[in-house]
Design a protein that fits this description.
The chain is α/β, with parallel strands linked by helices. The protein folds into two domains: about 170 residues, no CATH class; about 250 residues, Rossmann fold (3-Layer(aba) Sandwich), CATH 3.40.50.1460. It has 16 helices and eight strands. It has a six-stranded mixed beta sheet with strand order 4-3-5-6-7-8, sandwiched between helices.
Length: about 475
């Protein structure tokens, strides 16, 4: 019987490779069923709920992939716009952060696909990444909006573990062997992306809250010699609004300084400090803030060295300098040489140094002082300001940077940990600082950052006096 015979049996034909499998006789009228292909939405749900998906369930066209990838991107853009409020204004630098995120996702997806065994296509890996972003983006938005410590530290770790588990389940369904290898590479890629973004201060935020009076539109143009000449009157008006001291107890007077006007984070941090210190130590009616803020250059006196000196003298005239305590909170960028940045629009302002601050405090004659400096290299203020009657708390050591001082944040890491989370509930000021320092250290370690090592000095005299005269009358705060 020749190979070309029309009557060759299926068995012989199968042996020589002409067909792959025996066929059912048509006379039986039974067709071999194939596994039904699930819909794109159902495949997405199956993947995100840890159920097995088959290779045929993945999108076969670029359009289907784009639809899945567009969903988390759209969610982020909606949240970004919503969180900035009704008066938000566009800030295009966020496009760079968004582009970095997209490039990093594509790069990590490609590498993970290539090292999988068998290798997986870029389309497949991008589908996995896009699906995972449907979990990550809402969770990240919720943390930014409502997260508190320790949730803000541990939740990203838990979220990362869940995403890796989902990815491992998905790869197993595609027949990938030794899944732990691509998962390890994915984890390293995610950590690398996070470290680069943090160190480069990259953010995908593109909308920011504008001032109610629209000052951001002409910020800098309105700050001229006339604007500077108005500052003495503004400082005096703020001083005149201070409530009389309460003679029955030692009073706390609050003075806040937000130095760097081009980023809102410092003005927001001083506003938070003013509110918390006011509620806890009763300084609400005896409070002044000197603020440089691109969103509003009219409401508060400007933060300049001259305004600071005038405010200190005015507070000293209204307080009992031998009994009352000044709580001085400063927030801005800091330089390695110890300068505390004071900027407002295009004006060239004198920078605040530890020596200038000590000179201004001594000239005012205020004895009891609590000074909190939130800035990079702020530990340089400790030697110049320390005395038996002074408490100095700083966000970083003299040779270290602090973190979270970018325009995409409401307060710095130190401001969150100290003013927002620790001080309202702590038993004392120093306990709040120690708690904040521990929280910041854990957060920096988790993110692979060099420790900022917040520094402090508690004078022997004020340590005792503060606990007896002030802390004993303090209130727990509910924010």
């Amino acid at each position: 019987m020749s190979v070309g015979d029309d009557n060759v049996s299926d068995t012989v034909r199968m042996q020589v490779g002409w067909i792959d499998a025996p066929r059912e006789p048509e006379s039986l009228g039974v067709a071999t069923p194939s596994a039904p292909r699930v819909s794109a939405l159902r495949a997405l749900v199956r993947f995100l709920t840890f159920r097995r998906i088959a290779p045929d369930d993945l999108p076969r066209t670029d359009g289907a992939l784009v639809a899945v990838a567009a969903a988390p991107l759209l969610l982020w853009l909606i949240y970004d716009r919503w969180s900035a409020g009704a008066e938000a204004w566009w800030f295009g630098s966020g496009l760079g952060g968004l582009a970095w995120n997209l490039v990093a996702i594509a790069l990590v997806s490609w590498v993970v696909g290539r090292i999988s065994a068998p290798p997986q296509s870029l389309r497949t890996m991008l589908w996995f990444a896009s699906a995972l972003m449907l979990i990550v983006v809402p969770a990240q938005a919720a943390l930014l909006q409502w997260g508190t410590y320790p949730l803000i530290v541990w939740m990203p770790l838990l979220l990362g573990a869940v995403c890796l588990a989902l990815l491992g389940r998905g790869l197993s369904g595609l027949g990938v062997r030794r899944v732990f290898v691509p998962l390890a590479v994915a984890m390293l890629g995610i950590l690398g992306h996070h470290v680069i973004a943090e160190r480069s201060f990259l953010s995908a935020g593109m909308w920011f809250a504008a001032g109610n009076d629209g000052a951001s539109e002409d910020y800098g143009a309105r700050q001229d010699d006339r604007w500077l000449l108005e500052q003495p009157e503004r400082v005096d008006a703020a001083l005149a609004a201070l409530a009389p001291r309460d003679p029955s107890r030692a009073n706390v007077y609050f003075l806040g300084v937000a130095g760097y006007g081009e980023e809102k984070v410092f003005a927001e941090e001083i506003a938070l400090a003013e509110r918390v210190v006011g509620k806890r130590y009763g300084s609400t009616q005896r409070s002044i803030a000197l603020v440089n803020d691109r969103r509003d250059i009219e409401t508060r006196p400007a933060a300049t060295v001259w305004s600071l000196e005038r405010a200190l003298r005015g507070i000293a005239e209204r307080m009992d300098v031998e009994r009352d305590v000044l709580f001085l909170a400063l927030s801005s960028h800091g330089a390695e040489d110890g300068e505390f940045a004071l900027t407002s629009g295009g004006l060239m302002l004198e920078q605040l140094t530890p020596e200038l601050l000590r000179k201004a405090l001594d000239a005012a004659g205020i004895r009891w002082r609590v000074i909190v400096v939130s800035a990079c290299y702020s530990g340089k203020f400790v030697p110049a300001l320390q005395s038996p009657d002074t408490i100095v708390l700083t966000a970083a050591a003299a040779d270290r940077t602090s973190f979270g001082c970018s325009d995409q944040r409401d307060v710095t890491w130190f401001g969150e940990a100290f003013y927002r989370d620790a001080l309202p509930r702590a038993l004392s000021l120093t306990e709040a600082f120690d708690t904040a320092r521990q929280v910041i250290a854990r957060r920096e370690k988790a993110d692979g950052l060099d420790a900022s090592r917040p520094a402090s000095h508690v004078g022997a005299e004020i340590g005792r006096y503060w606990m007896e005269a002030i802390e004993s009358n303090a209130y727990r705060v509910s924010l």
